[in-house]
Amino acid sequence: MPESHAAASGTRESVFYARTSIGGMLRARTFWEQRPLHPVARLLLLLAVAVLLCIAIGFIVASGKFTRFDLLALAFYLGLSAFAWHPLTAAFIVMLICSVGVMFTGSGGDLLELAIALCLVAATCVPWVVVAHAALLGVLTTYIAVYETTLTQGGVFGVVGIAVIALFVGLAFRLVAAREMTLLAERERAVKDIEAIARESQERIADELHDGIAHDLTLVLFHARALPRQPDDAARQVSLTTIEHSAEQALHSIQSLLSLMRDPTPESPESHSTRYGGNLVTAVLALGNLLEDAGISTHVGVPSTQHSVGPTNEQVLIETAIEAITNIIKHAPKSQSASIDVHEHDDDVELVVTNVAPSTPTRHASSGGGRGLHRVRQRLSQNNGQLEVDKTANGWTLRATVPTITRPDN
Fold it and tell me: CA–CA distance from 1 to each of 6, 256, 265, 409 (Å)?
């Protein structure tokens, strides 16, 4: 794994542990957002409500009469079931029913039910609803203790104890649900990171194939086809030398590609990163010689002074020049002339490659629709550069620019 990915992975790991710790989750805003019940808890709640309803209906049938206590009990159980779908609505229904039961019947059972319901409120509702539920429970408990005699001695402490236990149980359910959601989000993020790493490795391999091996094999194929038609021994020797050198370079690129596939680390050798020594002037002169050896009269213009462009942008310009020359040899091998010029301006360095062909260039060569120029455009864009490919009356022109290094004022 590249160092950047390893560092990012270490940072994400520390952030993950901070988020999934109890303290970290309690401080997170998302932890206190309203959330639905966990599917398992929802099923258990509905089963419990169904059992309670059956028991209540059984008592009503056995007694042969239907009282207001039975009505409040049935309404309370239905209110509890609403937590499975609309927790906020269910919380207010439960608070309303229990308040009516306590105020108009003086029932301590309604008080206990309100205390137990705090578990569901704490597990699903926002903090202010939890606080409102607890405050209402405190007010009703005080009312029962002062004005009613339904609570036995020490009953207040029992209600308070049940309420505290219910609160912690509800928070525990919320913690489990929040942690599960965090784990799912981290899993999704990890899958995306792995996919991004895989795409990056695929792009590196594809770039290695295109920028290195394809360029060298194009030269081998061109000179191999031209070799039988060479007019003299000197021209044949140039083609043989080019074929031998390009074949060796292609073999080196294949070895580099195999190393990249076996061990995709920054230390793995990459042929395109060391091609032409990473020097733009050297690359332009060498590419001009390649066109000359291919029988295309080529003008090369480079700045007399050292250009002020960063190594990354310089490498991108080298790759751009390689792609342009490869396209000329591949798609316009009968070009009458070509030119490779490097211009340095105040704010950017410009690479201009042109060719003059006896016939209109092919669409692929002039439009920049292939993978090579598409990737070059991406690289230039990533480094604040730009690429222009224009079709002319008798050839095509490629113009690539990258920004220069900003030097601090003395």
Answer: 6, 17, 6, 39
Q: Which of 118-132, 151-165, 244-258 has the lowest mean pLDDT?
A: 244-258
Cα–Cα distance, 186 to 349 (Å, whole number) = 43
Mean confidence (pLDDT) of the chain: 78
Residues for the chain: how many in total?
410
Q: Taking a C-beta distance cutoff of 8 angstroms, is the pair 77, 49 a contact?
A: yes
Give me the pLDDT at residue 367, please: 44
Percent of the chain scored above 70 by pLDDT? 79
At residue 344, what are phi and psi to the nearest 5 degrees? -105, 125
Is the model's pLDDT at 150 over the cut of 60?
yes
Q: What is the pLDDT of residues 337-353, one digit of tens each?
A: 999 999 888 888 899 99
Torsion sign over Cα 42, 47, 51, 53: positive
Q: Which residues pair with 387 in a beta bridge?
A: 400
Whether 25 contacts 19, CB under 8 Å? yes
pLDDT at 132 over 90: yes
Alpha-carbon distance of 195 to 169, in angstroms, equals 39
Packed helices 87-105 and 127-147: angle between N→C axes, nearest 10 degrees: 10
- Yes or no: say if 163 and 151 are a contact pair by the CB < 8 Å rule: no
Look up tokens 């490498």; give the residue: 315
pLDDT in tens, 356-410: 887 654 444 444 455 678 888 888 888 888 999 888 878 889 999 999 875 444 4
